[in-house]
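In response to the reviewer comment on reproducibility (Comment 2.3), we provide here a single inverse folding case reported in full, input and output, so that an independent group could reproduce the run without further information from us. The structure tokens appear first.
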């Protein structure tokens, strides 16, 4: 796997650039700063992309999403029209 920039890794992970940049700043993703950009090594890219949610974590997230939609579904629909 080649080295990547923050936007490239964000796209590969399905996250925003801001989310990936935040993880770099917190040290959760190791990167080298070059000028105004960060470069993530191929080894780090592999490590980060291998890290996935467990089935239990996915189930917790799914349950929370269902709860929020059931509780606030109508409000969310109204807000999406604004």
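Designed residues, in position order:
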């Amino acid at each position: 796997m080649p080295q990547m920039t923050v936007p490239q890794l964000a796209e590969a992970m399905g996250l925003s650039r801001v989310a990936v940049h935040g993880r770099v700043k917190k040290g959760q993703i190791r990167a080298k700063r070059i000028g105004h950009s960060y470069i993530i090594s191929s080894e780090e890219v592999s490590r980060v992309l291998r890290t996935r949610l467990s089935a239990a974590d996915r189930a917790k997230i799914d349950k929370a999403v269902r709860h929020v939609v059931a509780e606030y579904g109508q409000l969310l629909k109204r807000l999406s029209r604004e």
